[in-house]
Each structure stands twice: as C-alpha cells, then as structure tokens.
Amino acid sequence: MTSDPADLTAADYLDGAREMSAANRPYLAHLLAEEAARRTPDPATAAGIRASFPDLTTARKESD
Length: 64
Hints:
The chain is mainly α and 64 residues long. Helices cover 62% and strands 0% of the residues. The chain is built from 4 helices and no strands. The protein has helices at residues 10-22, 26-38, 43-52, 56-59. It starts with 9 loop residues before the first helix and ends in a 5-residue tail after the last helix. The mean pLDDT is 88.
C-alpha cells in the first residue's frame, strides 16, 4: 500500500468502498466509491460505480 494518496487508483478506492460496505459503513463506502468514479475515465463505468454505492443522505427522510 502506498503512503501517498495521489498514488491511489480507482481500483484502490473501489476496494476500500467494498470493505466499508462490508463493515456496514455505507456513507464512507459512498465517499470512496465517488472518488473511484471520479478517477474512472469511462463515464458508463463511473455511473455504474455510483449506482452501486448510492448517497444515503439524499434518500434519508426526516421524522418528528
């Protein structure tokens, strides 16, 4: 593993997103997946990554 975040690849971020998802950390998984998608040159692949790790804060409903 590299100590410089600039050396991380989209695959590294996607692996981290999967690990966070497995650890029941969905928001962190979303953030890592978003960075993976940002580093992915193919728009269709990036869209697939984003769809696999949705932003839970936009789907959250407030209750009284």
